[in-house]
Amino acid sequence: MKLIFLGATQTVTGSKFLVEDDQSSFLVDCGLYQGYKWLRERNWQPQAFDIDKLDGIVLTHAHIDHSGYIPRLYKQGYRGPVYCHHATRDLCSILLPDSGHIQEEDALFYARHKLSKHAHPEPLYDGETAERCMELFQPVDFGQEFSIGNSRIHLQPAGHILGAGSAILDNNGVRVGFSGDVGRPHDLLMRPPQPLPELDLLLMESTYGNRLHPEVHPREDLARVVNDTVSRGGILLIPSFAVGRAQALQYLLVTLMDRGDIPELPIFLDSPMAIDVTDVYCRYADQHRLSPEECQHMHRGITYTHSVNESKALENIQYPHIIIAGSGMATGGRILHHMKRLLPNHRTTLLFTGYQAGGTRGALLTGGGTSVKIHGERVPCRASIEMIQGLSAHADYRELCAWLQQSQLRPGTPIQLVHGEPDAADALRFYLKENTEFHPVVAEYRQVLHL
Prior knowledge:
This protein is α/β, with parallel strands linked by helices. The chain contains 14 helices and 22 strands. It has a 7-stranded mixed sheet. The protein has a 7-stranded mixed sheet with strand order 7-8-9-10-11-20-21, with helices on one face. Strands 14-13-15-12-16-19 form a 6-stranded parallel sheet, sandwiched between helices. β7 and β8 form a beta hairpin.
């Protein structure tokens, strides 16, 4: 068996691992590269494999950096199965078409304003292609075994978001684990990740490999930011991921108002995708910590803006309010229109609530940037830029280490660290080397392992 690392090596995006033997060839994860332009350009490069010989895709979860390349393969002719959990299928049916529509809109915008070096800029794929590719999805339960060639595979719960799983592969007695994104033991919404079985090799994420989540509850920091913004008579903008983060923010804000920790404020969820995802969370109550009653209460006092006109109408509101909109790293979506309008206002607060990948607007602004380019225009930033920790759905390095030590991994088990920036991956490598008996190394792009 041969394993080829085609993404998520020394970066947090583009998760893609090719498994080959003499019987089959398949991918574990099939994500988009995001962030730096040199990374995004990989999305357009020729495949490192023959699509006609690809027998399947195993998807650990729905986030675009793990699933967002599937429509591109479909556009190029792939018609094999995509195995994933039922909740992942439901989330992808929302996320992938949205990704396609955003790419269409960006291509049209750049063509209209002549902002591209190409005379007729094209999207990587469009919304219709993303909708059609959903016919390939074959959902499975956690623990349900399926086969691709010689490989027997199952998914086990990884926490993180709905449907997220670690993929466990057994090929002729060689067992490989793909962690996917690993959740936290005390996550606000999700249940803890299931410990791993005995493995011959583990590919493990390292997104938070050099960071610890704060001990203070994020509820306290969120209340402070809201109250500071209200005292200035300003508007609070929160770029948010549609899956997991938007739901956690809704739950926290409603809870803070219930407790009287923040004033009763208009809250707008300006993301049709996040609105649909919230409904999915309510359908899979067995996977998260919230009761059906808490799920329904989460909607209280929050206005859902579905249409573009409803989103534009928010411009007319002058008194303090909160807008939650995608995307979480300010790489696209409706949040950009609100930022373009409100960043020059010193009363505005722009609040980031999670990791900001290098090359994104979020990383630029949290790093002290005084202006940002939006839709081809340089927008000055006079707003207050805030970041709160503790809402991330990724385990930090101590939590990852504890998860490994709860597992059945043997001493000396090799671990390839993926899905992390170079500093984070190497810090986790050092921490695991010093505190465990495993053998961690940082994976390299296009590295080939023979097992």
